[in-house]
Specification:
Blueprint (H helix, E strand, L loop, with lengths): L10 H4 L2 H22 L3 H29 L7 E3 L4 H15 L10 H9 L7 E11 L2 E8 L4 E6 L6 E6 L12 E8 L12 E10 L4 E7 L4 E4 L2 E4 H4 L5 H12 L6 E4 L1 H11 L2 E5 L15 E5 L1 H9 L8 H19 L7 H10 L2 E2 L3 H10 L8 E5 L2 E6 L2 E6 L2 H12 L3 H6 L1
Parallel strand pairs: 1-2, 6-11, 8-15
Antiparallel strand pairs: 2-3, 3-4, 4-5, 6-7, 7-8, 9-10, 11-14, 12-13, 16-17
């Protein structure tokens, strides 16, 4: 908040009520002395005022001088670069506030303010900024990197101009939104030409991330999990059919009280095309998979998969132990491998990567969510991300083959909701 120069009040105003009464008596006594002085000789009258006025004049001059010398101008930070003007202004506002809190409060999330009080950014007089921006469905996303090494993440989700929504001070943990971040990732089994958002869900995963310490979880649901929903009991895969992905999110939120922020949905064609733009996928497969009816199998060990083979691997469940549950775990392995592949890019590539993602998916996430989560790619440690599947056993619901979730599933999901991790369960095993 901006503060002006100190205000110096007369002594009588600054004193308590008792002292004010005392000041009135002093004033009356002074008037009496003045009246007596008026009846004195001319020589006495000339000398007395000179002596009486010396101290107040000196005191007044001294006070004015002190005020001028101790009031400092408000410090600001100038930002130079070739980014959009309103983005540069948003960065300058934040850095200026960080340097001198008499500047106006920046338009940033309150959590970011709290974080920067503990982990401040460098604020020299002048900063050069580089970055990149990209258009997304409902706004723009961008990343700025300062010559000090600090990284700022910005997004515009309502057309009212850029605002900084995340930061990573050099050598300090990042702030990329309230943690844990949690998103549902759904693979639709709609074929080419089908409605990707209202078909069945071929893969269902909850992705959580804690960018501040690089940890997270990939939690898979077997697609044939038997669940009780607002529309009746059915396979989890069928819940999206004819209803859309938001119903899947709502079910998880209402059933397990998880803070799921939104969804990302893609289909077979969209996934393969997206991988075609991201690149061939290096991956270490823990188990060999036999030949399938429509494609060949895979040996165990390190290999590189083409976009088509990556899709085929993600879809395979025949002839492997665990069937649907193992396939869900294999899909988690693909996600971890994609994370590592994306981490080979620079953080400045984040807006472009988000554009590729949105070209082949549908999402309910805002631009702010997208840039924060996209930036989190570079903060996560794959070794600190657990890839697990909700426990279940094969069973039947009438003539339908299903997966019955075990009682431990509720405990696992409750644990996930606390901090996005499953460390408590892992420690107890």
């Amino acid at each position: 908040m901006q503060r002006g120069p100190p205000i110096y009040l007369p002594i009588g105003v600054r004193c308590s009520a008792v002292h004010r009464r005392f000041s009135i008596l002093v004033a009356v006594a002074a008037l009496c002395l003045l009246a007596a002085a008026c009846s004195a000789s001319v020589a006495e009258t000339t000398a007395a005022p000179t002596t009486m006025n010396t101290v107040p004049a000196t005191s007044s001059t001294s006070t004015s001088s002190t005020t001028t010398s101790t009031t400092k101008p408000i410090a600001t930070v100038a930002v130079e670069g070739s980014l959009p003007d309103d983005l540069m202004v948003a960065v300058a506002d934040l850095l200026s506030w960080q340097r001198d809190d008499r500047n106006k409060d920046p338009d940033v999330p309150s959590g970011l303010i709290d974080h920067l009080r503990k982990h401040p950014l460098a604020t020299p007089d002048q900063v050069a900024a580089t970055g990149s921006v990209a258009d997304v469905a409902d706004g723009r996303v961008g990343v700025t990197v300062l010559d000090s090494g600090d990284v700022l993440f910005a997004a515009d989700d309502d057309g009212n101009g850029w605002r900084v929504v995340g930061a990573q001070p050099v050598g300090e943990p990042p702030w990329l939104g309230e943690e844990p971040r949690m998103v549902m990732v759904i693979g639709s089994d709609a074929r080419v030409g089908g409605d990707q958002q209202t078909h069945r869900a071929d893969s269902i995963h909850l992705l959580t991330a804690n960018p501040s310490d690089g940890s997270g979880t990939i939690l898979g649901f077997p697609r044939d999990s038997w669940v009780s929903t607002a529309y009746g009991s059915m396979k989890f895969t069928s819940l999206m059919s004819g209803r859309g992905p938001q119903v899947m999110v709502d079910h998880v939120v209402e059933t397990w009280k998880l803070p799921v922020e939104g969804y990302v949905v893609t289909g077979f064609e969209g996934f393969e095309d997206m991988m075609g733009q991201i690149g061939y996928l290096p991956i270490d497969l823990p188990r060999a998979i036999p030949n399938q009816a429509w494609w060949s199998g895979w040996p165990a060990g390190e290999q590189t998969l083409s976009p088509q083979r990556t899709l085929e691997y993600s879809r395979t469940r025949k002839g492997i132990p665990g069937g649907d549950l193992t396939r869900s775990a294999n899909q988690g392995l693909v996600m971890l491998a994609v994370l590592q592949l994306l981490q080979m890019n620079d953080v400045l590539d984040t807006p472009e990567i988000l554009q590729v993602l949105l070209d082949h998916t549908w999402t309910s996430l805002t631009p702010t969510d997208l840039i924060q989560l996209g930036a989190a790619i570079h903060t996560l440690d794959p070794a600190e991300i657990a890839n697990v599947v909700v426990p279940g056993t094969p069973g039947w619901a009438g003539p339908a083959s299903v997966v019955r979730l075990k009682p431990e599933a509720d405990e696992m999901l409750a644990d996930l909701g606390d901090d996005g991790l499953l460390e408590d369960l892992e420690d107890s095993e």
